[in-house]
From TrEMBL:
PANTHER family: ENDORIBONUCLEASE YBEY, CHLOROPLASTIC (PTHR46986:SF1). Its EC number is 3.1.-.-. One of its GO terms (biological process) is rRNA processing. Its cofactor is Zn(2+). Belongs to the endoribonuclease YbeY family. Zn(2+) binds at H105, H109, D115. One of its GO terms (molecular function) is metalloendopeptidase activity. It is found in: Cytoplasm. Binds 1 zinc ion. Single strand-specific metallo-endoribonuclease involved in late-stage 70S ribosome quality control and in maturation of the 3' terminus of the 16S rRNA. Signal peptide: none annotated. This is Endoribonuclease YbeY. The lineage of its organism: Bacteria, Pseudomonadati, Bacteroidota, Flavobacteriia, Flavobacteriales. Keywords: Cytoplasm, Endonuclease, Hydrolase, Metal-binding, Nuclease, Ribosome biogenesis, rRNA processing, Zinc.
Length: 140
């Protein structure tokens, strides 16, 4: 089950479509959907989590806590809406596209993809693009 929680004034206007897409992403990776929670927040909220749990004194767009057991993926995915907006501006992409990228980024981590090295990062970006395309195909 995919849940959306809000710790800021942001709200998804298409929760059902996003949840259905993310469920499809999970299936496309031959995984089973467990309990996945998205928590939308601001920079300050996510910065505190980054300091407390990861000991990183930096701003970030997404932090994923992975509770996957075997083939059933589960986790908590915290997303700073402020970072997503800034990144969308910096990368010259629509906000909705950048939001989809961070939404699917957490799922891909739960599926076992990493992004620490250059090769892993290239694969992660490729997978993000592939899964974002699934959203557009499902809506047509």
């Amino acid at each position: 089950m995919i849940n959306f929680n809000y710790e800021t004034d942001f709200n998804l206007d298409n929760e059902e479509a996003i949840a259905a897409w993310l469920s499809g992403v999970i299936l496309s990776e031959n995984k089973k959907e467990g309990e996945i929670s998205y928590i939308f927040c601001d920079d300050e909220y996510l910065h505190k989590i980054n300091l407390e749990y990861l000991k990183h004194d930096t701003l970030t767009d997404v932090i994923s806590f992975d509770y996957t057991m075997g083939n059933e993926i589960s986790g908590d995915c915290f997303i700073s809406i402020e970072r997503v907006k800034d990144n969308a501006f910096d990368f010259n992409v629509p906000f909705d596209e950048e939001l989809k990228r961070v939404l699917v980024h957490g799922i891909l981590h739960y599926c076992g993809y990493k992004d620490k090295g250059e090769v892993e990062e290239i694969l992660m970006r490729s997978k993000e693009d592939e899964k974002i395309m699934l959203f557009h195909v499902e809506r047509e």
